[in-house]
Structure prediction request, 74 residues.
Amino acid sequence: MQSKVASEAVARRLQDDGAPIVIVHPGAVLGPHGPHRGDLMHRLRDVLRGRYPTWPSGGYHQVDGRDVATCTLP
Prediction:
């Protein structure tokens, strides 16, 4: 958690200096080679297997881990 707080502080300083920085807080980082399957992955698996009769409407903030890996600071 400390690294997230520190990296956001860097991003906000860059914003203050005029850099075009966008900060996002995705609900989940998912990808094809993730070492852990979280609750959402188990639910998605069960949806695909027909174990959920319905899926709630609405949205969910997530990002592909491969996209996160390609981000760099200026």
